[in-house]
Xylose isomerase (Paenibacillus eucommiae), 342 residues
Amino acid sequence: MQTFRYSVGPWNIHTGADTFGPTVRQEVPFAKKLEKFKEIGFDAIQLHDDDAVPNINDYEGDALLAKVKALKGQLGDAGLAVEFVAPRLWEDSRTRDGAYTANLKQLRDYANERSKKAIEIANELGTKNIVLWLAREGNFVPESKSAVRSIEYLVEAINRMLEQDKDIRILIEPKPNEPVDKSFIPTVGHALALGYGTIDHSRVGVLIESAHSLLAGLDPADDMAFALSQNKLWGVHLNDQNGLKFDQDRAFGSVNLRQAFSQVKLLMETGYGQNGEYVGLDVKALRTQSDDKAFKHLSNSLFAVERLADKVRSLDLEFINARQQDTDYEDLDRYIINHLLG
Ligand code: 3MF
Ligand code: MG
Ligand code: MG
């Protein structure tokens, strides 16, 4: 019996290209990925709009829905639910100046049109969750755009989505940098404030990725706790990251084991998942993995969550409570380290 229900995106099985080198593995067919996900222990899949409908720019209306219906059958056969749909607003050349915050109106229109399609796809696939990773909404050149106006554009774009469909909810996935230098929505605080400025803030929450918090110099569990305190933690991307460097998407627990423990402990203690939330991963295989071994970052991440969950279940809560009372936190630290090593 698994502690949580887990989800993963098809981009988490990949060919290993990075900024400085080409692919090193064969592309795995979509159907094979589904099979692998199920075998490893996932319950649901996360989708970009164009994971659901490749070449999405070529489809709209009924043609779009026909494509989605075929996918729905395939996912049903594979026994995987859909956690969310996310418009991929960072690859098309029309999103190079930001998507919702582009200076040119026709480019912002394109972003809004893509978002509309993402909602249609989500409806057909039976999920209410739209994830917005605002990849290029930020700047390199401070004078390039008004930061104030940009926030207004973001609010307007989210309002448009909330109006289009009264049931969908928006999960903003904050990230401080990469691919932009300075993101307009770098942290969970920014994301929630943005949500509170929309026409229906009860339908705007967050998806927190461990590595995105680390890239902001913050503790992932504390970021998640802040969102939980507002009842706004509607999704997570568990992964890991070695310091304030490039975005690494390392397997969960592979770098910061203590912080990984804190995240699992928090999610368990607060009953995360009881309202249907999934524990999602967003992890990449190391480039050195061969084709047949390029799935281990997924199984290793689930292994880490479950092993840490065992550690949470076997904590001596009386001891912890006593240390909280006598403030002997050195003793508490020693206990936790010993517990994790034991
Ligand atoms: C980038 C990310 C993204 C998002 C994904 C879904 C490609 O750092 O984390 O992964 O998670 O687009 O919103
Ligand atoms: Mg990421
Ligand atoms: Mg992510």
